[in-house]
Amino acid sequence: MPPSPRWPPTSPSDGRGQVPSPHEDEGEERPSPDLRVVLLAVVAWAGALAGFLLQPWLAAAVSGLAAAAVTVRSRRGRPVVLAVACLVAGTAVGGSAMLRAEANRSSPVAALAEQRAFVTASLRVASDPVRREGRFASYVLLRATVTEVTGRGRRYATHVPVLVIAGDPWREAELGSVVRVEGRLAPADGPDLAAVVSTSRDPTVLEPPAGVLDAASVVRAGIRAAVAPAGPEEEALIPALVVGDDRGMPAGVVESFQVAGLTHLLAVSGTNLTLVVGFVLVLARWAGVRARGLAVVGALGVLGFVLLARPEPSVVRAAAMGSVALVGMGTNGRDRGVRALGVAVLVLLLLDPWLALSLGFVLSALATAGILLLAPPWRDALMRWLPRWLAEAVAVPLAAQLVCTPVVAAISDQVSLVAVVANMAVAPLVGPATVLGLVGGLVMLVVDPVGLLLGRLAGGCAWWIVTVADRSARLPTAAVEWSATAGSLVLLSLLCVAAALVLPRMLARRGWSVAGALVMVLVVVRPLPTPGWPPDGWVMVACDVGQGDGLVLRAGEDTAVVVDAGPEPALIDRCLDRLGVERVPVVVLTHFHDDHVAGLPGVLADRVVGEVQVTGLRDPEQGAASVDTWASGSGVPVRVPAYGEVSRVGELTWQVVGPSREVGGEGYGEEGSPANNASVTLLVVTHGIRILLTGDLEPGAQELLDRSTTELRVDVLKVPHHGSRYQDPALLSGLGARLALISVGEDNEYGHPAPETLDLLQDAGAEVRRTDESGDVAVVVRDGHLSVASTR
């Protein structure tokens, strides 16, 4: 393997404007980077984890053993000194972690939480509010620090972190403000919180944010105003690129970024800081600033970025990693960058040990380490047959992606195969989109027309990034599933280590590199073969789309009717590809919850779609509006089918058997969501069997269906609402279904399917198949006999 030139390159040209080939100086042996500070950071991280996750009396022992186990011999120091330094670092961070965890556990807030006490408290908001969709309504999450709490007749002054779960009015709570909350406390799951506060009451603002944070809010508002004329997805992406504000990102777009390996663009990361501060440094150099002046400008740029993006722990972490990247861009950048990385991790853990439990911190540190340690030799190998700029464009995302792959798989249960190419495709426009968005927001505060012009240019760059993410995620094998079990993650880590050892030799050879790239292209653009899938005689498939419904009814050779599209476009798209479906005469969306409609763009992609049928209740309105937008963008009409309507397509016949009356009226009972009870319910007949598709009907609507459809008997039942415990026993047991299908996500937070529902179905004599256990599940009819097949 050729020696590594400095990273980034600082080599002089050969007089012809060309950089010398990396193997022209093979006789020169470059020293390996000094890893002592990195080792200190690793031991400190281990100490923090010991302090949080192990019994307190073990934490010191773990730190001591970690230091005693050090056998790495430094080039410039003795092992004993290094071992002592590791002992000090591990003990200091581990001790800090223990003290903070114990402070949370022993606080008055934690004691009141154990009693489930109703309290009045003063909180300082420590994070931007985040809106989430719940089962019956949306809710808001935010972190805060309790400064004073009154409960059980006593008042306490304290300073501990809590998580607040509240209603939509809390979306207006500003970072840094002090508010009064009245709510009920509950114990927290982890050591990083003293309690969880649940409240249905509006916050009372006691103190507004500090002036500097208020000014940052004005700039953020200017950024959003500058990009407002862009499309909705581009309008939401620009604030995410500039300051990590991804609150407006549609769920479908977020999923596409995850599959494409571009999630780092949606959160505050070192990339954001590097682009923003790098732009400021370029302006400073243009203005004549040099030497120490540039260092001052850089430091002020980092500080300004932190204030603009909000001084949350994730932002501070991103600022540190971005600063390391800036250091790595200078002379002797690789060695200096590695030392800076170790110092950054060590200092951050000393200041905030909670970062040791943050997956975002893990990903930032690993990506930075990969770029500093692996990218230079890989670039050198590629430079044997590629120009430097292209070698760097391949090596940097490849190194970052490889070292982060096991952690990403642990989070998402999948490994992206398109991440490197997707990152290369968007890289040229990430910088312009970020800088134009920032400058446009600043100018918008002074000259509106110029700010809007810059915002439109930023929106054009963002359009390309969104398009790359969307197209990459829709590729048949954009990602492969990978179980997040300990054994499978260890195996994946070993594979990544093996790849890191083999890649330098492989990348140095044009033939091997081109062959490997062609194999990856074929794997990604062609669906991975599933022997025996789809099975002969399949009439219906419940696609494994996670926590949601995605059902496919066969109507011909390459034709099918789709009922619900799941929560993610890529998943339903890949399922349809595996089944060979090219024409969809009808898409039926039972109701407008995201887990049934958010995947609709995946159905519409590259297929001939006739129409979309929907329920008459536009609840939630946001979901209904999204369906209208996606359908109109593809030129597909949307309509509400009538109760009792019968339709025929090829081999299929179906009748709409619900909802039979206005949702919320008499007969639905008091429990349940109106949107769920408004689910379009279909009775399907195909190849001599009857199938009942029930959406998310809950007990009241199920009882009404049972009364309004006399002597209803079916062969196959799609179990309502992912097998939740809210079922009408009379309906489920009276249908006589031989097969019950449950479309449900693995390890979902709702506890679906409920044990009592499974017992009810088994007592009724139905065979139960679940997508979380069996993958895609197919109903098969051969020679009049009903059977079932699955992908696992």
TrEMBL record:
Region called Disordered, residue ranges: 1-31
Keyword field contains Membrane: yes
Membrane disposition: Multi-pass membrane protein
Domain Metallo-beta-lactamase residues, every copy: 547-746
Membrane spanning residue stretches: 37-68, 80-99, 265-284, 291-309, 361-378, 390-411, 417-439, 446-466, 486-504, 511-528
Localization per Swiss-Prot or TrEMBL: Cell membrane
Origin superkingdom: Bacteria
Keywords: Cell membrane, Membrane, Transmembrane, Transmembrane helix
Gene3D superfamilies: Ribonuclease Z/Hydroxyacylglutathione hydrolase-like
Biased segments, Pro residues type: 1-11
NCBIfam families: ComEC_N-term (TIGR00360)
Protein's name according to its UniProt entry: ComEC/Rec2 family competence protein
Organism, as annotated: Nocardioides jiangsuensis
